[in-house]
What we know:
The complex is a heterodimer. By secondary structure, chain A is mainly α. Chain A contains 16 helices and no strands. Chain A is globular. Chain B contains five helices and two strands, in the order ααββααα. Chain B has a two-stranded antiparallel ribbon with strand order 1-2. Chain B has two domains: 7-37; 44-128, Cytochrome c-like domain (Cytochrome Bc1 Complex, Chain D, domain 2, Orthogonal Bundle), CATH 1.10.760. In chain B, helix 2 (47-58) crosses helix 5 (114-128) and helix 4 (87-96) packs across helix 5. By secondary structure, chain B is an all-alpha fold. Chain B has helices spanning 7-35, 47-58, 81-85, 87-96, 114-128; strands at 66-67, 70-71. Chains A and B meet through helix 2, helix 4, helix 7, helix 8 and helix 9 of A and helix 1, helix 2, strand 1 and strand 2 of B.
Amino acid sequence: MMHLQYKSQAVAKPYFIAAIALFVGQILFGLILGLQYVIGDFLFPAIPFNVARMVHTNLLIVWLLFGFMGAAYYLVPEETETELHSPLLAQVLFWVFLIAGALTVVGYLAVPYATLAEMTGNDLLETMGREFLEQPLPTKVGIVVVALAFLYNIGMTILKGRKTAISMILLIGLVGLAVLFLFAFYNPSNLVKDKYFWWWVVHLWVEGVWELIMAAILGFVLLRVTGVDREVIEKWLYVIVTLALVTGIIGTGHHYYWIGTPAYWQWWGGIFSALEPLPFFAMTVFCFNMVNRRRRQHPNKAATLWALGTGVMAFLGAGVWGFLHTLAPINYYTHGSQITAAHGHLAFFGAYVMVVLTIISYAMPMLRGREVNPERAQVLEMWSFWLMTVSMVFITLFLTAAGILQVWLQRIIDNPQAFMAVQDQLALFYWMRWMAGVVFSIGLAVYLYSFFAKDKPETVPTGEIQPAAT
Amino acid sequence: MSATFTKAMARNIFYGGTVFFILLFLALTFHTVRQIPQRIPSETPSPAVARGKALWETRNCIGCHTLLGEGAYFAPELGNVYKRRGAEFIKIWIKVQPTKVPGRRQMPQFHFTDEQLDDLVEFLKWTSEINTENWPPNIQG
C-alpha cells in the first residue's frame, strides 16, 4: 500500500466494496419495482411491491452509510495527520454492520413482515412499519451500536491529531446522523406526533446533517485533486454548511403542511425550504471554482468528473426538483404523487450516491496500491458516469411527466378520477422510466467492469502529478 | 471570496447560525406539540386506534400506500379512505385480497380476524378526522 499516507486508511477498502455490492442489489430491486408499476402482479406473491421497495430503499441507506464510514476512515487519518485510533475496531464494525444488514434483507425477503415483527420483538418497542425505518428492533439497536463505536473511533482519532475544518464538519455531520437516528425509537400511537418526529430522522438527515458529510467529502477530494489553498476551501465549506443548516432545519416545515400540524408551517416551511437550493447552488459554484483555480493537473480525471457531477446534479435534484413542489399552494396538489418520487430519485442520486462514488473514485486506486487507475479504466468509469447520470435525469423527467398528469387527472380536473384509473393512464411514462432504468443498470455494469479494466499493452501509462504552472 | 471575510468569521457564523435555528426549531416544535391535541379527533387515541396503528405498521401498509400523502405511491391514499369508502367496504376489500386479476397490482392477504379489521378501521377513521388543512384536494386522495 505504498500510495497510502497512513496505513490504517486501508480499512476503508472493504467499506467501499460493500457499498458498491449493495448498490448493485439496490438497482436490481429498482428494476423489479419499475416493472411492478406496469405489470402489477410481477413476482407476486413471492416478492410483493412493499417488500421490494423496502429492500430498494434500505439497501440505499445502508450502502450510503457504508460509503460515509469508508470516506471517514479514509480521509480522517490524512486530515488529522495521524493513524486511526483503532483499525481493528473499524474492521470488526464492518462485519457487524454487513451481517446485520444482510440478515435484515434476508428477513424482509424470507418471511412475511408481520412474522418478522413478531420474531424480532417489535412488541417490546414498536418501531417497525414506518417508511425507511422498517428495520426490526435488533437491526435498529445494531445501527446505534455501530454508529457509537464508529464515532468513538473517529472522535478519538480527531482528538489526538490535527483538527481541520473538514474533519470537524464531517464529525458534526456524523454525530448529528447518530443522534437524530434515535428518534427512530420514538413511535407514539398519536399518528400526528409520530409523523412529526419521524421527519427528524428522515428530513434532518438528508436535508440537514448529511449535507455536512457531503460537503466535507467534496471539500477533501477537491483539496487533493485541485491543490487549491486549504484556507479557501475550508472557508467555502463553512459558508455551504451554514446555508445548509440555516435553511434546512426550519425547512423541515415543508413536511408539516398536511399532517395535522398547525397551518403556520406553510409559511415557515415554505420560506425556509424555498431557500434550501442555496447550499446546493453554493456547492456547484464551489466545485467549478476550485477546479478552475486548480494548481495541478491531477491524473485521476474520473474523480474530478464525479466531483463536478455531484455539484451539478445535487443542485438539480435536491435544489431545483425540491423547489418545484416545496411551496404550500403547489404542494397541496403535488404532495405524495409521482412528483415526489421524481425528486427523491434525482436528489438521492445527485447528492449522496454521487458524492460516495466521488470519494470511491478518488480513494480506491490508492487503496488498491496504485497512484491512479489505468487510462482505459478511467475512460470506462467516465462512460459509466454519463450513462448513469443521463439515465437518472430521464428517470426523473419521465416520473415528473407522470406526476403532472397524475395530479391533473386525480386532483385538478372537474371530475377527478380514482387512483388506479389514473395509474393505468400513466403506463407509457412508467415504461419509459423502466427503459431509462435499464440504461442505468448498463451504466452500473460498465462501472463495475471499470475496476477490472487494464490498459492495452501499447497504451502509454498516465503521467505523474504535474507541478503547478505558477 | 474576499480576503476580508476570513475562515474564522465563516466558522463563527456557522456555529452561531446553527445554534440559533436549532433553538427556533425547538420553540416551534414546543408550540406545535401543544397545538396537536386540538387538531385530532381525540386527545389520546383509543386502545382500538392504537391497535389499528400497530396492525398498519406490522403489515407494512406504507410500503405501497400513502397515509396523509406520505409513503409509497403504488396504491391509493388511505388517509381519507374511511370517508371515501366507509367501514364495510374497507373490511370486505381487505378480506377478498388478492384479486388475482392478471397484470393488475396485487395486495397480499393478511388473514385478519374480525376484531383486527375493526381496529384497523378505527385507526383509519381516526386518521380521516385529523385537521389536515383540507388535504387531500378531493375525495380521490
